[in-house]
Design goal:
Rossmann fold; 2 domains; single chain; Arc Repressor Mutant, subunit A; about 40% helix
Length: about 350
Amino acid sequence: MASPVAAGHPPQQIRFCRAPDGVRIAWAVHGSGPPLLISTCWLSHLQFDWESPVWRHFLVDLGRFATVVRFDERGHGLSDWDVTDHSLEARLGDLRAVADAAGFDRFALMAMAQGGPVAIAYAAAHPDRVTRLLFYGSYSDPLRESTPEDLELEAAFSQLIRAGWGREDSTFRRVFTSQMIPGATEQQKTWLDDLMRRSVSATTALLAREQRLRTSATDLLPSLSVPTLVLHARGDRMNGFGDGLHLAGAIAGARLVPLESDNHILLADEPAWPVFVDEVRRFLLADGAAGGTVPGADALSEREREILALAARGRDNADIARALTLSVRTVERHLQNAYLKLDVHGRSARAAAVARLLTGA
């Protein structure tokens, strides 16, 4: 499986921006294709995620067909650690700062895990910028329909963070790891155990968790009118499948894709992973390189759209072939088929095909 590194491109570019309250936020961009901004999940470290047996396949596979922008949440990873405000307003400011720094006028927005309320609030406030909305293992309210037993469990988790998060011994952190990736190998679990301590201090982990539990964006769901895809593992132990059902039912026109897995973080070798990748790819490329109704575009195959999207970013046939693990001759054949379907001919056919998809002309 080729990666962006193997295709001759740097794995990612790490940059920094300032949130409205001055907190420095680390963000990164990699891949090629339609822009996809990820509303960050609980644990991330832009540098170490590239070495991860748990996260690397997300980065490599999404980068095959999308320009992926992601960031470390305030208080985490390469972002400023000395932070006490983890409110929805503050986190929304972080997302706005990253979206502006990335420079895309319009983009798809993916909410992972606790990134849901922030993504919902952003999409509601900026409907002109969000082309598509995706949720993966996420929610609109972490305590929606919670029972007294659920609240007791949350209190127990807080005690575990206080007692054991910063210890060299990973016994306490393994409780969270076992919820996130119960089907993982020991190597993968050990890596996630270590990521927790590398990503955030015990003080911030506890403070951020307590403030996130008081965050809800449920009231904003009926106002969303953007195409929406909800992906959720049936056996997710961190955020139950009911959270995905609720999102899909509350957002007009949303589509739910149940993933046959018990893992909150899908692993590369489980059957649900290629389902996730294919659903996201189809969803992002459904409108071609850029939206708009183009004569002949409906007849294009998924692969033809994918190749034209890469061509739109200036990549030549050899580069496209390496990125998609194809031969140059296969890329040329797909392009020729696309030219016929779009009714463009001659030496300028490539430029004409790309321009028609980009402008809708």
